[in-house]
UniProtKB/TrEMBL annotation:
Key word Transmembrane helix present: yes
One Pfam family, short name: PAP2
Transmembrane segments: 50-73, 80-100, 112-133, 140-161, 167-185, 197-215, 221-246
Keywords of the record: Membrane, Transmembrane, Transmembrane helix
Name this protein carries in UniProt: Phosphatase PAP2 family protein
Gene3D superfamilies (alphabetical): Phosphatidic acid phosphatase type 2/haloperoxidase (1.20.144.10)
SUPFAM superfamilies: Acid phosphatase/Vanadium-dependent haloperoxidase
Domain Phosphatidic acid phosphatase type 2/haloperoxidase: residue ranges: 78-182
Organism taxonomic ancestry: Bacteria, Bacillati, Actinomycetota, Thermoleophilia, Solirubrobacterales
Length: 263
């Protein structure tokens, strides 16, 4: 149980810092304004359409998709645990929002914003994909889920729907629930770094396509919005690391005593 509790503790630290430490509150707001400034980029509107995939009705369909994949792959228990984790994570996010509501430094955002429900939904779906996938397909499931998560949360921030700290909270909350599901599943297959590396390569290619035609402007924007640049890197790194590490086993195999017979 150590991994889920550690993730929840990290989420609590993020919330307390963003809600009650003035310097971190200000940095959170500055980073958000930096994300909002990206909406003028060509193609930004299409990215924003990703958000709607994690509204309640599509999210319910995605939950059923995880169950169907479990049946298709012969991993029914994994599919049910993945779907259950998605629902539990999203319900907990919606319960926490009003309980932890506090007005912060961006006036157009409501107090009940932490953690981000859409972030919890997309991260939960990404991790459910990794859980339900058979070992041979798991790196690709991790890569697809991580890429979808990074693009969706960046769209949320560009739309000005949440603070960056709300997004980090959603990533950690979903990951805590997924870690619990992995504990119940009790599998020993290890997830390699291949999935996050594949997603990182795809993200780098997309970044290059967006930046290369306007390198000077991109550098000037990053220099003028250093808090945003650091926030974007932190969120992307968190999504990639959590996508790859959460489905891994939570402990080493038990070692037999030296004098025990080995089969």
């Amino acid at each position: 149980m150590r991994r889920p509790l550690l993730l929840l503790a990290l989420a609590a630290v993020v919330y307390l810092g963003a809600a009650y430490v003035p310097q971190l509150r200000a940095a959170d707001a500055h980073a958000l304004y930096g994300f909002i400034g990206l909406t003028t980029l060509p193609g930004a509107g299409r990215t924003l359409e990703l958000i709607s995939l994690f509204d309640p009705a599509p999210f319910a369909a995605l939950t059923l998709l995880i169950v169907a994949l479990g049946v298709l792959f012969g991993r029914v228990r994994a599919g049910l645990l993945g779907a259950g984790m998605m629902v539990a994570a999203e319900v907990s996010a919606q319960v926490l929002k009003p309980l932890l509501a506090v007005q912060r430094d961006v006036p157009f955002l409501e107090p009940a914003a932490w953690p981000s429900g859409h972030t919890t939904a997309v991260m939960g779906f990404a991790l459910a994909l990794a859980i339900v996938a058979p070992p041979r397909l798991r790196p690709y499931a991790v890569a697809a889920g991580a890429l979808l998560t990074v693009l969706t949360v960046n769209a949320l921030l560009m739309a000005g729907s949440h603070y960056p700290s709300d997004v980090l909270g959603g990533l950690l909350l979903a990951s805590a629930w997924a870690s619990g599901a992995v504990l119940l599943l009790g599998e020993e297959e290890r997830v390699t770094v291949r999935g996050p590396l594949l997603a990182s390569g795809a993200l780098f290619a997309l970044f290059a396509l967006a930046v290369l035609p306007r390198v000077d402007a991109a550098v000037d924007y990053a220099i003028a919005n250093t808090t945003f640049a650091l926030g974007a890197l932190t969120i992307a790194a968190a999504a990639l690391v959590l996508s790859g590490s959460v489905p891994a086993p939570t402990g080493a195999r038990r070692r037999l005593p030296p004098d025990s017979p080995r089969g």
